[in-house]
Amino acid sequence: MNWKHGIISAIVLIALWQLTVTLSGVAPFILPSPLRVANALWYSRALIAEHAWVTLAEVILGLIIGSILGILTAINLATSSTARAILRPILVFSQAIPVFALAPLLTLWFGYGMGSKIIMAVMIIYFPVASAFFDGLMKTPSGYLDLAQTMGATRSRELWHIRMRAAMPSLGSGLRLAAVYAPIGAVIGEWVGASKGLGYLMLLANGRVKTDLLFATLIVLAVLTVCLHLSVDILARRLAKDH
Amino acid sequence: MMGAPSITFTGAAEFSGAPLFHDITLEITGGEWTCLLGPSGVGKTTVLRIIAGLDSAVDFRGEIISSDKKPLLNRTAYMAQSDLLFPWLTLLENVCIGAKLRGDQVDKARATQMISRVGLAGHEDKKPSQLSGGQRQRGALARTLMEDRPVILLDEPFSALDAKTRADMQELAAELLIDRTVLLVTHDPAEAARLSHHAIVMQATGLRHIDMPQTPPVRGIDDPQTLATQGKMLKILREGPQ
Q1: Residue A2 sits in the same domain as residue A46
Q2: Structural domain tally of chain B?
Q3: Which one, B4, B59, B131, B209, has least CB within 10 Å?
């Protein structure tokens, strides 16, 4: 898909939206027209931006912390059979608990501020990053390891120069998933209890029947997520370069 | 090379309870090329991997003795059918990887020298993907030379190359790995006839030594004695175990 196709599908979508509103005569507080939403976006831009910054900060911090924890876990699992025996069942079990169900508890423990949202994002992205990178670390081509062994490689150097390098494309796939999941985590955290952020603003707009503002906020959230996805995609491509 | 030891490999191997090969004694003469020929699945590569100290998924009972009584650990270099160049490193970095993996000082000047010895001068900064199959295998040879080990274990390193490149590579390897103890595992009787001082066919029933021509390797592709030896080997391979 290129930019032209993207623009064409956006125009088609907006046209369909306008057509639905015009033909059905639906009330603006149920479904506002694209023009109303554009208006809301323009007049509330300062408000939306203020909240967008908060969400963006939560998402980026969550991504960084979650990725680092995921990477460290994967390395630990890949290098220690004891860690594999103990941690893996816990990790798999932890995935059986819906993270969203923990959101109220996290708010209770860590408060209404950014902390609980960052933790929420971290919890959502930690597993995909850890699991993708671990898979990559365990799938090093055996020929590479044979060569390293005959060369007298130390385990840590083999890990650093070969296994981790060979696993970079897998880490890239994990990060791609993380970039899509992280905003979901942060926004759900904001829904459960917050005083700032796009999720909070959406709830607020919904409660006051400012559906146009709700839509405007939703569009900004979607754009942020797409931008984040594109940036991480560039990073993932760099990681997979030459593989 | 001074001090390239002879190796005596004695033993039997089982793969999940079933015998892979019975008691065999393989003599690998120091400073010379020994070729191990045989059909697929007979255990040639397993013998090579056991000598290299690599995991072989078999239960091996036996011993490997070198003529100087020293262990072979860290005295062997290994070349496989695949060049095993790391795609994310340049050719120069690939040639230096051994030192990096051991935490030794990297001698770039010597690596550059090895790269020009295999005829790849000017390609130092290229990634493996920018090199042809033959060039990559030359790169692997430069990396093997860089390791400077007395014992070289070659597991069909030329089999994936086209005929011309293969003949060129065989000559280059024979020239550069002279005076080292070389064990070459191969399917190809022509290769064994050209390159080896000693050739042994490995069969389910044991090892069969082949009489080699008097001329030293590398022998000419069209040399009558070489062709006759090649024919003899192929015949033995086709006949199967006696």
Answers
A1: no
A2: 2
A3: B209
Rounded Cα gap, residues A189 and A112, in angstroms = 9
Under 8 Å CB-to-CB from A13, ≥6 apart: which residues?
A: none
Sorted by sequence, the CB contacts under 8 Å of residue A73 that are 6+ apart come out as A87, A91, A126, A130, A134
Q: Is A162 on the interface with B (CB under 8 A)?
A: yes
Q: What is the ipTM of this complex?
A: 0.90
Search chain A and give the residue with CA nearest B130.
A242
pLDDT digits (tens, 9 = 90+) for A103-161: 888 889 988 888 999 999 999 999 999 999 999 999 999 999 999 999 999 999 999 99
Report pLDDT digits (tens) over B178-198.
Answer: 999 999 999 899 999 999 999
Do B54 and B174 lie in a common domain?
yes
Closest chain A CA to residue B154: A147
Pair (B230, B163) in one structural domain: yes
Chain A, chain B: beta-carbon pairs less than 8 Å apart: 62
Report the gap between the CA of B101 and the closest CA in chain A (Å).
5
User: Where in the sequence is the domain holding A17, given as residue range(s)?
Assistant: 1-30
The CA distance from B21 to A69, in Å, is 48
B218: preceding bond cis by omega (within 30 degrees): yes
Residues B56 and B105 in one domain: no
Nearest CA in chain B to A165: B88
Q: State how far residue A150 is from chain B, nearest Cα, in angstroms.
A: 6
